[in-house]
């Protein structure tokens, strides 16, 4: 039997991957909402990292915030988080946890490839499976999934990451249709570059390391060139997570304020990757709702 510990006037939001980046920015922003419109279940696999979120909120943990342990690759951890939340009403589920993997395909280890799919695809699937039944029973809800421009077009030297994000596109497109009669809305946020720790956190073949030894000279040269391009892209064209959102990004999260803000205005000289990321709304973020 579902309780309704979350006051009816509040929107209950559960977000995965809140230890850093977009998840942290979104959780902090919603929890600090001056009108206290949200109750945020900010989840992360290592609760010790919750300190950063608390610091962002001025050192405390407001009543609008609850930290929960959740590793999207661990069914027991998911079940425990679901038990904690499913006694209450959950309005919005944000599947944000993700990891990257960059490098020539020949250098991607079996384990690294599996981790990417375990977190980006199966992690999102498991999370949705855990919270969907209650949303269906209530015949209401919104599921937001952090996709990527890399789920729309293949980005060089990101083949495994892109494959996982392409798969997420299929997952969401299929679900969106089936869940419509249940009044559950699926939203894919297809981010272009956002300035977070993503680039530092991703698994990446070291251009000077042993992984590239034995690889042909042309691929090595192209990869090094791509890495330079990529660093420049994140320096100059990325959005910053956690800052004030643009009006467009406000709308992005279906009425929730987003944590994305474009830093420099998009210019004509923007690199192709960034242009692709901004093709729909020219603001570096692309949002897809199911067709009306
Ligand atoms: N930044 C970009 O340019 C960009 C562009 C397109 C899409 N995205 C997508 O945006 C999402 C957030 O990325 P970000 O930029 O904010 O990068 P980030 O700062 O590296 O954040 C990734 C988050 O995912 C969490 N995570 C990783 N494995 C997990 C697991 N097994 N269970 C639960 N959480 C896990 C990380 O937690 P730990 O601290 O425990 O590792 C971290 O909180 C990802 O899905 C990413 O693919 C980002």
From TrEMBL:
Organism superkingdom: Eukaryota
**Cellular component GO terms, alphabetically?**
cytosol
Q: Name one GO biological process term.
A: gene expression
Q: Which InterPro entries match?
A: NAD(P)-bd_dom_sf, Sc_DH/Rdtase_CS, SDR_fam
Keywords attached to this entry: Oxidoreductase
Q: Which GO terms describe its molecular function?
A: 17-beta-hydroxysteroid dehydrogenase (NADP+) activity; estradiol 17-beta-dehydrogenase [NAD(P)+] activity; estradiol binding; NADP+ binding; protein homodimerization activity
Similarity remark: Belongs to the short-chain dehydrogenases/reductases (SDR) family.
Q: What is this protein called?
A: Hydroxysteroid 17-beta dehydrogenase 1
Q: What is the lineage of its organism?
A: Eukaryota, Metazoa, Chordata, Craniata, Vertebrata
What is the primary gene name for this protein?
A: HSD17B1
């Amino acid at each position: 039997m579902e309780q309704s510990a979350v006051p009816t006037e509040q929107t209950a939001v559960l977000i995965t991957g809140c230890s850093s980046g977009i998840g942290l920015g979104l959780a902090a922003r919603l929890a600090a909402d001056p009108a206290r419109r949200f109750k945020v279940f900010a989840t992360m696999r290592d609760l010790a990292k919750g300190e950063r979120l608390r610091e962002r909120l001025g050192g405390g943990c407001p009543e609008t915030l609850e930290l929960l342990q959740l590793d999207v690759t661990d069914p027991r951890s998911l079940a425990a988080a679901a038990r904690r939340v499913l006694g209450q009403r959950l309005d919005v589920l944000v599947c944000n946890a993700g990891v990257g993997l960059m490098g020539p395909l020949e250098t991607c280890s079996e384990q690294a490839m599996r981790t990417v799919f375990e977190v980006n695809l199966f992690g999102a699937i498991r999370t949705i499976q855990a919270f969907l039944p209650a949303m269906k029973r209530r015949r209401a809800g919104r599921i937001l999934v952090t996709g990527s421009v890399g789920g729309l077009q293949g980005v060089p030297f990101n083949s495994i990451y892109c494959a996982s994000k392409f798969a997420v596109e299929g997952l969401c497109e299929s679900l969106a249709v089936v869940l419509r009669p249940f009044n559950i809305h699926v939203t894919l946020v297809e981010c272009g570059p956002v300035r977070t720790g993503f680039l530092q956190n991703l698994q990446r073949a070291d251009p000077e390391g042993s992984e590239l030894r034995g690889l042909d000279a042309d691929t090595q040269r192209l990869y090094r060139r791509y890495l330079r391009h990529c660093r420049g892209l994140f320096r100059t064209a990325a959005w910053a997570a956690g800052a004030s959102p643009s009006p467009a990004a406000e709308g992005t999260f279906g009425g929730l304020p987003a944590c994305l803000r474009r830093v420099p205005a998009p210019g004509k000289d923007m690199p192709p990757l960034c242009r692709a990321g901004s093709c729909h709304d020219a603001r570096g973020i692309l949002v897809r709702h199911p067709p009306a």
